[in-house]
Inverse folding.
């Protein structure tokens, strides 16, 4: 890809931020309507009841930034030195609406994002949002996103009304990603009602903790059901340092194998590879929200230099210092270029 | 403490394993009765429905080993080179029974464990089990465990019927630990019904994943409610590499501070220290189930050499090779002695 800064000037690499959020007004208004009418689940009520109505600086600034796809966002990218942002519609996407409304709203949002990418082709890359409530429609939207909108990946905001993509009815979505040769990015939303109880009653349902464990669970559900045996070339991305799965890897692998051997669960069948193998060959993680040298270098060590990509998590964690944290990592220049630029170029086919 | 091996012979340190499980026959029969009568929660039904009835080698061997507090356990310790085992009653302890039954059964189990420690004083250290269903009784049992039974710590198998120790009614338990100067060890059990849905339907409710995130949540609930501001000298231990909280630390700290500033949750008040500070000063973690050099050294780096202790997780993860993994860690001799021996001696007051 050509870029005004070409190779990042003196620094020798572009900064490509891979998990950057935006929203349409219609989308946010939709959340607020669900909350107002008591039709939102507990997590959406907690999340958007806060961001949509709180007078706090955090909430108001984040909503303003989510909605801006032009001057303000580009200025923020310039101020922090982000060369390219890979954009997707913020959580919980369109997955909390009734299917017909979700599809209509999701299609319009994808069109709006494509228009923004067209206005700023050197700065933005788009991902296709979906409405898993209708898996076949979502599969068609993934194909449309690639063929007509120029999108480079697929975004799902984790569970859909408490259902996970390992359930057979969602297979068309996974197949469409594999056929498009595009990565599926699983972004957090709040845990579903069937899980959120002890998180939300203690204020730990959001990005502070609930988000991460729910996405880690989602990815592990997909791995253990054998999604990568079904689609060996599929790549799944998760943010936030891999939602802690890299740290858990030894224990997960041990207990998964013990579970398979003992036949404890009908669902848990032998897989072609170890969990470790899938994490190193089919999963990519990003550093969104985890701009911390120990965690980044740990993840690079255990997953490999090719599996970790930079992300800012704009606007939720818009902290210019965090870019510097990445720039100053004590890793080789080659590894840093992979982290900041070329892994994203490979995974998203830029 | 005197010990037949004195200083671990040539190796220069004792191996003190800090999270080692046992059970009484009455306790296991109690679980099976709850499961049979349909009175167990979903997690206990999954866990003990498996361990208590499966003909698999894993299940039958583990139950046999849990019940043995003499020859077989000592032989296994000798075979793997564990000098001292810090023992506690296995999950879910007595926390799934009605209060009166729980207290009676828990008291008898504490007596039985004390008798085993008396039979093998150089090899075993005991922890007091409690029945948080009755917080005042549990406080008295903690005092009795210290004064009469010679126990050195307090074991809680995480939530009690879906309730967590940060709730005000459990304060007597925390106060009793602080007054006894003994650490509170939070061991996993299955997530409560209010959380377990997407875990148990996918076979991920147990040690493979659900255990760890539930205990991580429990510890985070205690930290964020300010337990260590209330009891600045209290130590809480968690196993399994700190249940991933060390890896999450940067994000948790950032989002906790953002949450406090924005006033999102009534419950989330400013604390005296950062989450990072409490993790480094009031929390100790053990390596149970995480015999993996990258995770152990990561935890030692971010929490400090004084905060990480060896554990095997016998009999659930009885893997002689894992002892060797610890012995061969590329850390200083001084750090290794802390990990294997002296941190446990300090924390448990041996």
């Amino acid at each position: 890809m050509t870029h005004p800064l070409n190779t990042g000037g003196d620094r020798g690499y572009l900064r490509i931020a891979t998990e950057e959020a935006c929203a349409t007004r219609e989308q946010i208004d939709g959340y607020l309507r669900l909350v107002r009418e008591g039709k939102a689940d507990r997590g959406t009520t907690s999340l958007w009841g806060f961001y949509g109505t709180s007078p706090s600086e955090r909430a108001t600034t984040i909503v303003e930034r989510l909605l801006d796809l032009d001057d303000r966002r580009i200025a923020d990218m310039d101020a922090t030195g982000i060369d390219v942002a890979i954009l997707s519609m913020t959580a919980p996407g369109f997955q909390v609406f009734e299917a017909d409304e979700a599809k209509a709203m999701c299609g319009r949002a994808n069109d709006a994002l494509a228009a923004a990418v067209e206005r700023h082709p050197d700065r933005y890359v788009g991902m296709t949002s979906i409405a898993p409530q209708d898996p076949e429609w979502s599969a068609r939207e993934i194909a449309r996103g690639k063929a007509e909108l120029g999108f480079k990946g697929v975004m799902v905001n984790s569970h859909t009304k408490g259902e996970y993509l390992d359930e057979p009815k969602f297979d068309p979505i996974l197949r469409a990603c594999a056929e498009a040769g595009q990565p599926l990015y699983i972004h957090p939303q709040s845990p579903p009602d069937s899980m959120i109880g002890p998180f939300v009653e203690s204020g730990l349902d959001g990005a502070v903790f609930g988000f991460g464990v729910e996405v880690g669970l989602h990815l592990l559900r997909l791995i253990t059901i054998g999604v990568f045996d079904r689609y060996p070339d599929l790549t799944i991305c998760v943010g936030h340092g891999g939602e802690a799965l890299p740290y858990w890897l030894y224990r997960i692998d041990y207990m998964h194998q013990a579970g398979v051997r003992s036949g404890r669960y009908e669902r848990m069948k032998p897989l072609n590879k170890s969990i470790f193998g899938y994490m190193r060959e089919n999963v990519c993680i990003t550093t969104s929200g985890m701009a911390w040298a120990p965690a980044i270098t740990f993840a690079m060590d255990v997953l490999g230099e090719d599996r970790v990509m930079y992300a800012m998590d704009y606007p939720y964690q818009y902290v210019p210092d965090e870019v510097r944290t990445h720039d100053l990592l004590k890793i080789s220049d080659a590894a840093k270029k992979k982290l900041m630029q070329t892994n994203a170029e490979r995974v998203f086919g830029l």
